Amino acid sequence: MLTRSGHAIKDKEFLNGMKEIDVARKVLENKFAELEDKSAILRAPELRALFDGIREIDPEKRSEYGKLVNELKLELQEWIDSSIAADEPVLPLDITAPWDVNTSPNNRPQLLSSALGSIHPLTTEMNLICDIYQRMGFSVEESREIDDDYHMFESLNFPEDHPARDDYDTFMTDEGLVAPAHTSTMQNRVLQKHKANLEVGEPIAVVIPDRVFRNEDLDATHEHTFYQIEGVYIAKNVTVGNLIATLSAFMNEYFGQELKTKLQPFYFPFTEPSFEFAIERPDVLKKDDSEEQKWLELLGCGMIHPNVLRMAGIDPEIYTGFAWGNGIERMVMMKNHIEDIRHFESANLKFLRQFK
Ligand code: DAH
User: Among 76-80, 220-224, 308-312, which is the least confidently predicted range?
Assistant: First the structure.
């Protein structure tokens, strides 16, 4: 009978339920201290019993009670998270291994709760960089991790057997596919995709961030896998002045300071003329006033070669444009005083936690 007194009985169930949660918490605490595999606490029968008990509670109080049980479960998850000591080594996953190698009982990597994770410093930085370019009117398109000789070289005006191909220590498969050694591998595709813009008086303005791969000897400043961001801008009457203004605007925003820039002649097959773009070293990175400390060479750039435009079906007599390619790790390393590039891919939690 659902009389007032009936409610009183149900309330009693609720109060009893609360008491049960408290009792269960104590039991679970003791069990937890004994457990070797701490995550097993989430499968404890005491917790299950509390969940099963939810349906016994008066409907009016049920959700309140259910919430408390759930909170206990979250508390258990926190116990598990904090039981994983910061210094405990985490076995790396061998991503090339057959599935059962990583999961066999005696070689099981300790999986960390997602609550312990944080955004990788390169991702944070790449998001910031893309955000600046987007505010400048560029769209963002990712590159790819496998490509062919045509996109990596030929469409960029590297004829077959051109010696400049050797500057890119490219990984290749037996079938002749390549792991792109620069994000320029996307230029021809991006140009083809957006060339209709030009006909309606709009520019092509795209930045292309992604990983690139080179068969490098590894040391503190060289990794086989690293990040670049490529940029292309094409319209009528585009000049080197536009190139300098665009890259300067980006650098000033990124380093939060008005910086002088310097262009030095260089050679790339896909730009004519080609340059190395340097900026005056930002104050935060200056150690002394010596001449070597003065300039930072940050990227390669130039006016897109007429052959590259032609190969994408764009008439170089009507349109001109500039392009650039910028390595990301070096900028992030400078900004954060990171001394070794290998930290980025090391899965070293002590390193990564500094960016949390
Ligand atoms: N792809 C070049 C490299 O990785 C960088 C680069 C230079 C990209 C000049 C460009 C460019 O788009 O115009 O060394």
Answer: 76-80
**Rounded to whole angstroms, how far apart are CA atoms 187 and 346?**
31
- Residue 325 Cβ inside 6 Å of ligand 1? The answer reads yes
d(CA 72, CA 111): 22
Does the Cβ of 300 fall within 6 Å of ligand 1?
Answer: yes
Give me ligand 1 centre to Cα 315, in Å: 22
Three-class SS of residue 125?
helix
Q: How does pLDDT run across 252-309, given as a tens digit for each residue?
A: 999 999 999 999 999 999 999 999 999 998 877 777 778 778 899 999 999 999 999 9
CATH code: domain 121-353 is 3.30.930.10
**Residue 190 near ligand 1, beta carbon < 6 Å:** no
Residue type, 32: F
Q: What separation, in Å, do the N-terminal and C-terminal C-alpha atoms of the chain show? A: 56
Q: What are the angstrom distances between the C-alpha of 319 and each of 127, 231, 235, 322?
A: 30, 16, 5, 11
Distance CA 53, CA 47 (A): 10
Q: Which of 239, 238, 259 is nearest to 249 (CA)?
A: 259
Distances from the Cα of 345 to the Cαs of 96, 126, 223, 277, 352, in angstroms? 16, 15, 9, 27, 10
Separation CA 123–CA 296 (nearest Å) = 23
Distance 119 CA to ligand 1 centre (A): 28
Q: How far is CA 261 from the centre of its chain?
A: 28
Domain residue ranges in the chain: 4-83, 121-353
Residues shown for the chain: 356
Q: What is the rounded (10 degree) CA torsion for 133, 139, 145, 151?
A: -110
> Which is nearest to 208 in space by CA: 285, 293, 130, 279?
130
Residue whose entry in the numeric block shows the structure tokens 């002590």: 350
